[in-house]
Amino acid sequence: MPVTPDTILLEPLATHHAEAFWPHAQSDALYAFVPIEQPGSQQELAAWFARLAAGAPAHLNEEWLNWAVRLPEDGAVAGIVQATVMPDGEAELAYLIAPAFWGHGIGRVAVRRMIEWLWHERAVAVLRAVADTRNLRSQALLDALGFVLAGEVASSIRGVPSTDRVYAAQARSVLRRA
Length: 178
Fold this sequence. Notes:
This protein is α+β, with helices and mostly antiparallel strands and 178 residues long. The protein has helices at residues 17-25, 42-54, 106-122, 136-145, 171-176; strands spanning 9-12, 63-71, 76-85, 90-97, 126-132, 148-157, 160-170.
């Protein structure tokens, strides 16, 4: 399945995406390196998507942007991409691509398209992303997009200590890459 920007759509995340993503949301591998609890039902997944789609609470003074990564060929939802945009024009990125779609470039294309949108629509210049040190796929994705390692911080996933790698990039640099 060759992946190009034309072979995926980023749609504003909504509760209806839970139905298409539910079969993939049941994979334990999806949650191995992220501090997200696996939903126990399609309704729990829809409720989580609804919370994300509602945006950040006003007191946080940040904007939450969330998109479903849809494959128009068959309507599948391969994952979600997320950006938390700060008032200073910086954004922290996150992404969750289902294991069934790993290794096809979908995450790389989706994150790059999100960065394009953030650059053009929100003037985001500075990007950050975090990847668990054990999540080699996520680190490779960030490397491929031109992010650089900025440091490491102690973390935990479901009470188990871990270490996160913090990556940074300039949106302009990412967008200049082929």
